[in-house]
Amino acid sequence: MPNQTRVPLRLAICDDEALDRAQIAQMAQEILRAEEIRAEIFCFDSAGALLREIRMGQSFPILLLDVMMEGMDGMELAAALRAGQEEAAIIFISSNREMALQGYEVAAARYLAKPLDAAKLREALLHCCAAYMQPREIVLPTASGQSRIHVSAIVYVEPWDRGVRLHLAHKNVEVRLPISQVTAMLPERQFAYYHRTLLVNLAHVRYVRYCELELKNGERLPISKYRLAQFKSEFMKYLKA
């Protein structure tokens, strides 16, 4: 999976144990080098230090976080980042397996146990790299002309009299294309129909209840009872991916 971009992929490793931090960095570097993925790895000895860097504008598309750390732990760091709309892929690494389920609450990509298995780390890193290298924008015809839309900003899509309306994080955009054509431009496993002509970004879904979705922004959407079983299946596949 060679990285075709000129800018190296930036990874952050956060672990308060120096030996673990060095081991994770070395393993990650060897995996990425073998896959011909250009990357820069940055190490942090506390969650607070990494959080400050991100809030100051530093970007790390992939984060490898220890869960159990002094002060702010990895879960608290992830929650703070998600609250700030940070979309980085998160890989938790911990000796505490009992906290794995909490990773779903912050949309973690993987939860790996210590001692770290190289094959599992490789799978997790390649999964996150593949997602990062997917197109992040699509170009759609709108009233103002050809507009670039960030895929991650799309919350859900509904029919509009001349095409579809995209509900974005902070605004709505009308697009003069059928929903089937818009769907074909989007990452297949990230979006799912919750009605015959209504599409939602699974990254924005918090809960699935009977006949209702709750989004992370607090909005609730009715789900067709005929779509419920299939939607739940697609949502679980997305969470486990």
Automatic annotation (TrEMBL):
Keywords: Phosphoprotein. InterPro entries: CheY-like_superfamily, LytR-like, LytTR_DNA-bd_dom, Sig_transdc_resp-reg_receiver. Residues 138-237 form the HTH LytTR-type domain. Residues 10-129 form the Response regulatory domain. Pfam families: LytTR, Response_reg. The modification 4-aspartylphosphate is found at D66. One of its GO terms (molecular function) is phosphorelay response regulator activity. It comes from the Bacteria. The keyword Metal-binding does not apply. May play the central regulatory role in sporulation. It may be an element of the effector pathway responsible for the activation of sporulation genes in response to nutritional stress. Spo0A may act in concert with spo0H (a sigma factor) to control the expression of some genes that are critical to the sporulation process. This is Stage 0 sporulation protein A homolog.
